[in-house]
Write a structure and sequence with these properties.
Membrane topology: Multi-pass membrane protein
Organism: Hymenobacter telluris
Largest sheet: none
Number of domains: 1
Strand content: under 5%
Order of helices and strands: HHHHHHHHHHHH
Main location: membrane
Keywords: Membrane, Transmembrane, Transmembrane helix
Number of helices: 12
Distance between the termini: 40 Å
Pfam family, one: EamA
Length: 292
């Protein structure tokens, strides 16, 4: 007799996933002073890869050449995206980092669109970026902003590669194997930084919580939600992440945003949700953003 599995309503699962990711980002910012962006990213991805390898048990020996060609660049893009995002988090508030990162998937959703109504979302997104830009010397770190935008570009690439990988490899296998390769572009920087020499049992526990809240738990919740929730609905809900990030930064990290920056977050959120609603083939925000 099979034991019934516990299941959350899909809407609640997605909301809990968003909260989990942003809580994980707050933990990451607490680790930066000791481990740096490279060390923190390496530990997060490495521990996540280990957990997923144990749970999913990826069948590496059975992969076909086409699957290798798909999953390896997918994993590399995932690792680089996370590394760049954490480099941004060192320099800019969490809410602004996530908002700028969202420009990547938003641009992908709008790419090639021929609907004149989509110009509205382009203008809104441009307005959001203009509001964040330090025209009046608002103290925004330009290097941090550049890292966040670069992470967004990697996110867009990751989505495209993820769609190709999903076509040739089951979702759980794709993420578990991809996470193994995600360590490759990050681990050399983590080792070179020497930050692992500063590890203590307390820091290792925080790193384990980071991997749990930023990767393992959101992955499980989103996979559960996507079983019954339409992809478009899922994408719209994920557009709330910049708001969740800004609130998380305010509540957990005491990061204050100006009125203009809050308006920028709102513009990007509305543009992302609107683009998802109106584009013919929306670019879904996939599980491992896991950006954040």
């Amino acid at each position: 007799m099979n034991t019934p599995r516990f299941s959350l309503p899909p809407l609640l699962a997605v909301l809990l996933s968003i909260i989990s990711v942003q809580g994980g980002a707050a933990i990451a910012k607490g680790l930066f002073p000791v481990l740096g962006a490279a060390g923190t990213t390496s530990l997060r991805i490495g521990l996540s890869a280990l957990v997923l390898a144990v749970v999913v048990r990826p069948q590496l020996g059975r992969l076909q050449p086409a699957q290798w060609r798909a999953v390896v660049p997918y994993g590399l893009a995932l690792g680089l995206m996370n590394f760049l995002f954490y480099c941004a988090l060192v320099r800019v508030p969490l809410g602004l980092a996530v908002t700028l990162e969202f420009v990547g998937p938003l641009g992908l959703a709008l790419a090639g669109s021929r609907r004149w109504t989509d110009l509205i979302w382009v203008v809104l997104a441009g307005t959001g970026i203009a509001l964040i830009a330090p025209w009046g010397g608002n103290g925004l770190d330009l290097i941090g902003a550049a890292f966040a935008l670069a992470a967004g570009g990697c996110w867009a690439i990751y989505i495209v590669l993820g769609q190709r990988t999903a076509a040739v490899l089951p979702g759980q296998q794709a993420v578990a194997i991809g996470m193994l390769f995600a360590t490759l572009p990050v681990l050399p920087f983590g080792l070179a930084s020497g930050s692992f020499l500063a590890l203590t049992p307390h820091l290792l526990l925080l790193a384990a919580l980071l991997a749990l809240f930023s990767s393992v738990l959101p992955f499980s919740l989103e996979m559960q939600a996507l079983k019954t929730m339409p992809t478009r609905t899922f994408s719209i809900l994920m557009s709330l992440e910049p708001v969740a990030a800004a609130l998380s930064g305010w509540l957990l990290l005491n990061e204050q945003l100006t009125l203009g920056q809050w308006l920028a977050v709102a513009c990007i959120v509305v543009a992302s949700a609107g683009a998802t609603l109106t584009t013919a083939a929306p670019a879904a925000h996939t599980t491992e953003n896991q950006n954040s």
